[in-house]
Amino acid sequence: MDHTAHDTSTSQGVGKHAGHSTAMFFRKFWVSLLLTIPVVLYADVTQRIFSAIGGSLPAGGQGASGGKWSPPDFPGSAYMPLVFGSIVFFYGGFVFLAGAWREIRGRLPGMMTLISIAISAAYFWSLYAVFTRLLRQPADSGGQAGAEALFWELTTLITIMLLGHWLEMRAVSGAQGALKELSKLLPDTAEVIRSGKTETVSLSELRENDTVLVRPGAKIPADGAIADGESDVNESMVTGESKPVSKKKNDQVIAGTINGDGALKIRVTNIGEKTFLAGVMRLVAEAQSSKSRLQMLSDRAALYLTIIAITGGIVTLIAWLAAGAEVGFAVARLVAVLVIACPHALGLAVPLVASISTTKAAQNGFLVRQRLALEAARTIDAVLFDKTGTLTKGEFGVQAVWSTDSHSEDEVLELAASLDALSEHPIAKAVVLKAKEQGLTLKRAEKFEALKGRGVKALIEDEEAMAGGPALLESIGISIPGELSGQIQDASIKGQTIIFAVKNRTLLGAIALADIIREESREAVRALKDAGVKSAMITGDSEDVAKWVSLELDIDEYFARVLPHQKSEKVKELQARGLKIAMVGDGINDAPALTQADLGIAIGAGTNVAIESAGIILVRNDPRDIEKIVKLSRMTYAKMIQNLFWATGYNVVALPLAAGVLAFKGILLEPALAAVLMSASTIIVAINAVLLRRQKI
Q1: Hey, which residues does 212 pair with through a beta bridge?
Q2: If DSSP codes are grouped into helix, strand and coil, which group holds residue 336?
């Protein structure tokens, strides 16, 4: 899989592989490995090992003596390390040399620079060693032309580094796999109805206002509105909603979602880059190109580590030369220090986790516009909810129906609904809906008359019927009986709206209505409390309504009668207490408050991904997703800290060993082993980051 797409989204750490691919590293690794084997076999260190173990191995080729194994000797064999080492350096090592040139040109020396200095030092010293020995003795006088050279260290170092990068890139390439899958959600073709005929066209031929036919089980090809038909649509792949969503005429549908059992005719509203799916991809890419504070810190640390490595390497080289060590030994220590201090894992630790977390967020129905916003979520002390449309549905619902002694609740509801059947008022709609849910039959109202400021009046089955508020009862001289007064008073304290039903100037009963509290809101507030986050509510409603809702949901604090332009002041008020605040609103009326808050969350954005005031956008209108944001933020931060530990922790022990601090005790960290440790650290960091994908939010 090409790695290029990943580079732009993961910044410095992962962008080291600009233009590279896993296949390229894999190919270079195998070629380098095959060439490294003979280089190692003909190295002095290998022959010394076999000489030491003596007769434990069978006698070998032409160079064998006394039963001690040595590799076959042939004309020019002494130069095999030079030839094969040069091929490995230029073929396998070129990727690091080219990367170093890009880093130096960009004035950001890092991992590639260190590796390049290390392999270049080893290679050019080895060339010097070979040619100086050539001048001292004939090539055929013992066959030890490369005795002081570091070719085996060079080739093993490059081979191990290539293996490490290949394994790392395999892990990295999966980091955005789920996001790339989004682009595969769209079908290749669409069935368009033109001039009464259905024809199959490619998606590129679709135009806005086209009507497409989507058969049962097929993918929806473009954003649009249902012109005809009803069906359940599976939107889980773009909104995270697990249950199929019921769709009917005029409902919006999203490109890439899967139609259920019904056939749909859809009028196309958005195509190409205008679709919701394209917006999601764009937002995630923007989020991944932005940097978190922790990443900025790790980038600085990587730069400092590079400087420390180069300085430490030079000091190590000079110190060993001053101590009288052989040049080959001192260069080997320089190479080991440079390799062990490579900040590759450090550069990868944060951006790879951030890339996976923003993708994971998109899969769960919330879009991260700014990576700093997701990072801030873990530190939030309180969530300030806008009441209407967030904690409540923003629409009236019947809370209770009461009847007087001689009448039934169904009779009260039936009369009020029959009077309200023709009204478009939200309260009237709520009464009618409740009656239909109860299975009541509405009766025809005649001679309908609106009573200004009081209610409505009509004839139902030739009997006078009226419905309205307290002003209606006052106008016709009816008092509230004792059995209803207590219940009505309690409902009024809660801020509920009361409607009375009157027939032939006799009170049948009353209906209490209020903005419907979402069941999901109870779960959301409870989940936030469990996570140690307080809840607060802000509303333009009266004190009574605000108090009732906050008591129902067990909200810690509320602000009532707050005008839209005053919401940001309430956010500042909470922040003045030292609290980190997340503001949850619709992203339009609440824009100033969302911007003022430490974390702005736009809820119920649907297919609108262009909300500038929010750092995080929730596709669904479900407050339970707020706790998911906090949880993902904490999971992401934990992974970043773990990765920073793996990326830097081993340096504390390995750097002194690489420099040869314990050489007097015979403990040395050879360049090849340094490469193994550095690569292992990088691979651990990559695998640990990818494990985030398996964690549930």
Answers
A1: 192, 266
A2: helix
Distance CA 498, CA 460 (A): 22
Q: What is the rounded CA–CA span in Å between residue 415 and residue 502?
A: 8
Give the pLDDT confidence of 21-42 residue by residue, as tens digits. Answer: 778 888 999 999 999 999 888 7
140: its two tokens: 């055929």
Which residue type does 590 have? D
Q: What does the pLDDT look like over 368-409, one tens digit per residue? A: 877 788 888 999 999 999 887 788 887 788 999 999 878 899
Percent over 70 (pLDDT), the chain:
82
**Residues known to be catalytic:** 386
Structure tokens at 327: 């040049």
17-21, 241-245, 365-369, 544-548, range with the lowest pLDDT: 17-21
Q: Could you tell me which residues are beta bridge partners of residue 466?
A: 457, 502
Q: What's the CA gap between 498 and 492, in Å, rounded?
A: 8
Tokens of 490: 């309690």
CB 580 within 8 A of CB 379: yes
- Write the single-letter amino acid at 255: A
Q: What angle do CA 209, 215, 218 make, to 5 degrees?
A: 95
Q: Whole-angstrom Cα distance, residue 662 to residue 239?
A: 58
Q: Which two tokens stand for residue 80?
A: 């095999």
Between residues 369 and 6, the one the model is more confident about: 369
Q: Which residues contact 569 (CB under 8 A, 6 or more apart)?
A: none
- Which CATH number applies to 186-282? 2.70.150.10
As to burial, measured by CB atoms within 10 angstroms (0-12 exposed, 13-18 middle, 19+ buried), residue 579 is middle
Q: Which CATH superfamily is domain 393-516 in?
A: Calcium-transporting ATPase, cytoplasmic domain N (3.40.1110.10)
665: burial class by Cβ within 10 Å (0-12, 13-18, 19+)?
A: exposed
The confidence score (pLDDT) of residue 147 equals 39
Q: Tell me the pTM.
A: 0.67
Least trusted range by pLDDT, from 272-276, 481-485, 494-498:
272-276
Angstrom distance (rounded) from CA 204 to CA 409: 58
- How would residue 13 be classed by pLDDT, with cut points 50, 70 and 90? very low
The angle at the Cα of 672, spanning 678 to 328, to the nearest 5 degrees, equals 125
C-alpha–C-alpha distance, residues 121 and 99, integer Å: 17
Residue pair 133/145 in contact by the 8 Å Cβ criterion: yes
CA-CA distance, 604 to 607, in Å (whole number)? 9
Amino acid at 546: A
Only one residue has tokens 């050489």, namely 663
Residue of 110, 238, 116, 127 whose CA lies nearest to 183: 238
